[in-house]
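BUG: 3D viewer hangs when loading the predicted structure for this chain

Environment: internal workstation, default settings.
Expected: structure renders.
Actual: progress bar stalls at 90%.

Input used:
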Amino acid sequence: MNEDIILSSRIRLARNVDGMPFRGVNPASLHGKAMEALRKTAMYTLYPMTALSPLEQTRFVERHLISKELISYGGSAIIREDNKISVMIGEEDHVRAQCIMKGLSLSEAYEELLPVEATLNKAMNFAYSPTFGYLTACLTNVGTGMRASVMMFLPALTLTGSLSRCINNVSRLNMAVRGVYGEGSQAEGYVYQISNQRTLGVSEREIVSSVENVATHLVDSELKAREALMQSDPDGLKDRILRSYGTLTSCYRMSKSEFMELIAFVKLGIYYKMFECTSPDELEKFITDIQPASLCLETGRRLDGTERDVVRAKKCLKLKEMISSIGG
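Structure tokens produced before the viewer hung:
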């Protein structure tokens, strides 16, 4: 599977404690019990949102370890040391546990998350109906309470104008297409999140299989679109790719939105073998590290927009170490 197209996979389970109001519960009354149960199985760290600075909170969002909603609810995050597992306490539901893995790894993420969910259920006793399944704060999650999603890099489908047709097709299969940070967010750098919409009347494994099938189909469509993109205007595409690399590695200021646009074309250049990348994983980490909150925390102070753009541009010089032009 092309990991330059499917960047990551995530399984998220929404759960609520039986006998407690689904909303308005103090997260502190729940996160202690969850933490006590989880620390017996692996190394976890508790992060109450109220104990973090706004920059620290936002960095967790940038790394997809928590949702923006967890911050607004004033909940807590319990994160395993490898960052694959994170458990949000006191978001829309009492518990939202998730596992994130690289590439198309939905089945593996599901198997990794199952014992975590079982441990939490034993300690907290989740609300379950023999008729409806797991009971959630929002009706759209009732049943399995599962969201299976893949993060996909789809520049060619976007640039060729084919993505809207693909979105219509997957919508008919009860799938949703969202931006980088989920519902209501933008698809920065041509990255989209594909996830199931249906949670009731289907099993967890059926959901996983459905999302995997849709992701595989989109990979095939993206590859065909990349061929068409190069065939339609090879000189124009190569020029845009090389200009993107040149701007990234020789500018004084670089906004986040401009960076995400330009790095997308550089990644296309890697696919077309115009560049060599020493480590794709390091490149993806670099993209995360130049997000606003991460930049400020690395610098050690809150930066305004202009200051961030200057710091980001300086960091982009490191791209020369990661990416080199083939044949020169």
